[in-house]
Automatic annotation (TrEMBL):
Gene that produces this protein: TDP2
Stored InterPro entries: Endo/exonu/phosph_ase_sf, Endo/exonuclease/phosphatase, TDP2-like, UBA-like_sf
Protein name: Tyrosyl-DNA phosphodiesterase 2
Self-association state and partner proteins as the record states: Interacts with TRAF2, TRAF3, TRAF5, TRAF6, TNFRSF8/CD30, TNFRSF5/CD40, TNFRSF1B/TNF-R75, ETS1, ETS2, FLI1, SMAD3 and ACVR1B/ALK4.
Lineage: Eukaryota, Metazoa, Chordata, Craniata, Vertebrata
Keyword DNA repair: yes
């Protein structure tokens, strides 16, 4: 959020202190300021904790088998948890010194009038460079500290890694086996009230709707996230799932703001076929004038993870918003998800829609 005029003196002191901590961390470890910034940010800017985290010989995520993983066969036969034997224990330290990040980005302004959310398909079913991409997700969250995070295609080793590394977030999962969605709540800003899972009866891909009821600065919100049925051939089931989502959003009391976000796999004509969105439910991207620069979240030319030769550009990732009776202003902060941590390797499949 922009602050008119000059930066307040207390914030200047915070920035100066964090710059000093970054310089000290970098001097001790021999790493760049960006790496220092990430470790300090995810450890609440406590030097001892950050150094302990950095010098850990191994991150014990439990008894994860180190066998060569069997590539999954998505989307009709998602790999069960026991078959995804990905060892994130000894992941290499990723050099992100090419990432141009200003230290002031880590100064989270706890402004009650703002709320930030990101939805992100992190592609856990793709085992290529999984360790680097797992670290990339945590680095991104540490740098930008959104209040709420919706993740899709999370697998158990990835889930355990997030619980270990993203300690400033409370994490609620939509399942425990195979692959699933999670909702992450920033502990300092978001209070968990309750959560529930609504099954999709006819899914062939282990999909469901995760609903999390929270309070943010005294305001009650219902957060919903899902990964709707994939591929063109499953359009009918995907539309049925969309109907369930919209019905659930409408059932929430009008005094509560409802936000749905996730990888919907929707094509525009499918939304039209179900009658469009109800009057009180907004598609955030459309509501903000359909900005062209963040139209597509599935772009095989921009993201080469899957090495797809054909050019595909679609808006799979969407955020729906049903304001409470006294709804406030909304603004979109487009896509920050192109956090490249390996040559030609995005941290995810879909650049992530973010709004504040």
């Amino acid at each position: 959020m922009e602050v008119d005029g000059t930066v307040a003196a207390p914030e200047e002191r915070v920035v100066e202190e964090r710059q000093r901590l970054c310089a000290e961390f970098a001097a001790i470890t021999g790493r760049g300021c960006d790496v220092a910034q990430c470790y300090l940010a995810e450890n609440d800017w406590q030097m001892e904790r950050a150094l302990n985290s950095y010098f850990e010989a191994a991150v014990d995520l439990g008894a994860l088998d180190s066998r060569t993983p069997t590539p999954p066969t998505p989307p009709l036969a998602p790999t069960p948890a026991e078959a995804v034997c990905v060892d994130l224990t000894n992941e290499p330290t990723i050099d992100i010194t090419n990432t141009d990040v200003n230290i002031e980005n880590c100064v989270q302004k706890e402004d009650d009038s703002t709320f930030s959310l990101i939805t992100w398909n992190i592609d856990g079913l793709d085992i290529n460079n999984l360790q680097a991409r797992a670290r990339s997700v945590c680095e991104y969250l540490a740098l930008y500290t959104p209040d709420v995070v919706f993740l899709q295609e999370v697998i158990p080793p990835y889930y355990d890694y997030l619980k270990k590394r993203a300690t400033s977030y409370r994490i609620i999962s939509g399942n425990e086996d195979g692959y699933f969605t999670v909702v992450m709540l920033k502990k300092s800003r978001v209070k968990l009230m309750s959560h529930e899972i609504t099954p999709f009866p006819a899914t062939q891909m282990m999909r469901n709707l995760l609903c999390v009821h929270v309070s943010v600065c005294g305001n009650e919100l219902c957060l919903m996230s899902s990964h709707l049925e994939s591929t063109r051939n499953h359009s009918r089931e995907r539309m049925n799932q969309l109907k369930i989502v919209l019905k659930k959003m409408q059932e929430i009391p009008e005094s509560v703001t409802v936000i749905f976000g996730g990888d919907t796999n929707l094509r525009d004509h499918e939304v039209s076929k179900v009658g469009g969105l109800p009057d009180k439910i907004l598609d955030v991207w459309e509501f903000l004038g359909k900005p062209e620069h963040c139209r597509y979240t599935w772009d095989t030319q921009a993201n080469t993870n899957l090495a797809i030769e054909a050019s595909c550009k679609l808006r799979f990732d969407r955020i729906f918003f049903r304001p409470a009776a006294d709804a406030d202003h909304l603004s979109l902060m487009s896509q920050y998800g192109a956090n490249i941590t390996h040559p030609s390797m995005f941290g995810n499949i879909h650049p992530s829609p973010w709004f504040r």
